[in-house]
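User: Teach me something about this protein's shape.
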Amino acid sequence: MKFRWISKSRGTVILLYILIFIIFCFALALGATQEEYDVITSPNQNYNIVCVEYDEGALGGSIEINLVKINTNKKDTNVRTLYKRRWGERPSIAWIDNNIIKLLYFC
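Assistant: First, the predicted structure itself:
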């Protein structure tokens, strides 16, 4: 008498689910990209506004607008997120003066 923990048909179904899960994870890993589509420097050259678009494939993505302090001694280290929305919505951005940023969001 043989002891089988999993029948042959059930084992095939489990193997198929595992294979589909591995393919899905691989597709998600390859689908995620990050692109800086705009960098705007402040009038006094102390800050940058960096607009980053995250494309996550089938999951959609997001848009992030970051304020980055320009440091001449080191790489840009001070990053502050000003705006984060779902992918596909790009606001209009402009510096009003050295300390004020204008974001216009169009629905």
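Now, about its shape. The helical segments are 8-31. The two ends are 69 Å apart (CA to CA). If you'd like, I can walk through any region in more detail.
User: That's plenty for now, thanks!
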